[in-house]
Inverse folding.
């Protein structure tokens, strides 16, 4: 899903027709895997999608040589690396750190781009490079606690230097986006803290809370926050502002708290119930966006 969405966004950004093959391959891969088809074609198409995203990212990098475009290209390479590990080992758990970095570094690169609008000190960018280097090395060495430390450091960096902190005092859509981002950084910090205790290691009792604090709390809070910007850029359809957007965001955080509590305490029913309610939060967000778009038209 995210490979499809991110590569589609990149294809729109560079304006090249060949770049649309990447989201087509990624989307086809997801459908095949969900349908229970043999893994070979799904893995192959996912890897083709990653290669296409890398190619599109290189085009964007050549057009604008900057740290954020380099990070976005590295993120695409992480997606391909995860697929390669999956194909070579047959174990998705070993590929998970690379897949998570694909999402984390994509978000981090996009947020880094916006820090250029702020008077960010030079040492902050040096720290950012050190964090990204740590994350990449940790995934390469399968060092879960180093990965967790890098995630925590990235969360603290974003909480300190991202423009979302300043926009919390705004109103309307700007404040909504800032709250989405800021809340996501808190979930990223929690994932890092849990990971420092070993929760990112396969088989750890708190692995579910750690992974979902990252992949739901952080990543989907970013989705909720970036949707009003990216959706119009890709579809040319604007999402009108309405306070109702806060409802699915609140539902996401509350249901994830239930899930994390259940996973941390070893309470299976609470964890499973939280998981089902997580899905409800995502459906609520989609329904809210569709309703606002229709009313806006």
């Amino acid at each position: 899903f995210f490979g499809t969405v991110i590569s589609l966004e990149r294809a729109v950004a560079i304006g090249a027709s060949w770049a649309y093959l990447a989201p087509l391959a990624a989307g086809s891969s997801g459908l095949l895997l969900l349908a229970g088809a043999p893994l070979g074609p799904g893995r192959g198409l996912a890897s083709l999608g990653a290669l296409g995203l890398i190619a599109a990212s290189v085009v964007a990098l050549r057009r604008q040589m900057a740290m954020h475009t380099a990070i976005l290209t590295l993120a695409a390479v992480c997606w391909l690396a995860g697929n390669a590990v999956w194909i070579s080992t047959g174990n998705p758990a070993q590929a998970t750190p690379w897949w998570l970095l694909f999402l984390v570094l994509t978000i981090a690169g996009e947020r880094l781009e916006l820090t250029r609008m702020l008077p960010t000190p030079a040492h902050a960018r040096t720290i950012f490079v050190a964090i990204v280097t740590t994350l990449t090395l940790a995934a390469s060495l399968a060092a879960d606690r180093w990965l967790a430390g890098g995630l925590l450091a990235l969360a603290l960096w974003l909480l300190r230097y991202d423009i979302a902190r300043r926009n919390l005092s705004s109103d309307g859509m700007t404040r909504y986006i800032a709250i989405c981002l800021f809340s996501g950084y808190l979930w990223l910090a929690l994932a890092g803290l849990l990971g420092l205790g070993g929760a990112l290691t396969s088989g750890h009792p708190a692995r579910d809370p750690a992974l979902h604090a990252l992949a739901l709390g952080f990543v989907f809070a970013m989705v909720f926050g970036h949707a009003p910007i990216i959706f119009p850029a890709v579809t040319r359809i604007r999402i009108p502002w309405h306070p109702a957007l806060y409802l699915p965001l609140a539902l996401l955080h509350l249901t994830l708290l239930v899930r994390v509590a259940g996973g941390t305490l070893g309470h299976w029913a609470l964890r499973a119930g939280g998981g089902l309610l997580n899905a409800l939060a995502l459906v609520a967000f989609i329904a809210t966006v569709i309703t606002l778009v229709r009313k806006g038209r």
Residues 106 and 261 are 28 Å apart (CA to CA). The chain has a mean pLDDT of 93. The first helix runs from residue 2 to 14.
